[in-house]
Amino acid sequence: MDALGEQTYQQLRRMAAANFRGGGDITLQPTALVHEAWMKILKGQPEVLADRAHFLSLAARAMRQILIDQARARRALKRGGGQVHVTLSGVGGEAESASDVIAVDTALKALAELDPRRAQVVELRFFGGLSTAEIAEVVGASVATVERDWRAARAWLAAQLA
Predict the structure, then answer these.
(1) Domain range spanning residue 74?
(2) Phi and psi for 85 in degrees, rounded to 5?
(3) Among candidates 51, 41, 149, 161, which has minimal Cα distance to 101?
(4) Higher confidence at residue 11 or residue 5?
(5) pTM given for the model
(6) DSSP class per residue in 90-132
(7) Which of 26, 34, 105, 110 is the most buried (most CB within 10 A)?
(8) pLDDT value of position 96
(9) Domain count, the chain
(10) Alpha carbons 21 and 78: distance in angstroms, whole number
């Protein structure tokens, strides 16, 4: 983990910043999200990280879990209050219906049962802020396949959240 260095930290900051583009009521700052994700990865660290793609996948999953835990805690404070709102527009996409992060997580779990790769593409793009090329590297698919998966998954999630 120590060998990941400054470049990896900057990648994590970029991923964390992607979670804040949708606005909403997120109380963590990108730096705090990076640090919490780093600690979560270290706590559950596999004996060996396979490669950069494996690390990015772990980081996106950790950030997703942290944001969902935070949203659930805020919701529990007050009936329905403190929901974090996000959009499915992703990076550079057109705006779609806004939904809270917990609903997105629930829909994403349902998608994972139907198509695990598409769910991973959404997680990496939506929660990890990775580019299509980076996602292709992580999931081991072509850029064109990732783009198709993203479009299909985004349409499926929008229908589920409508």
Answers:
(1) 2-161
(2) -100, 135
(3) 161
(4) 11
(5) 0.63
(6) TTTPPP--EEEHHHHHHHHHHHHHH-HHHHHHHIIIIIT---H
(7) 34
(8) 36
(9) 1
(10) 25
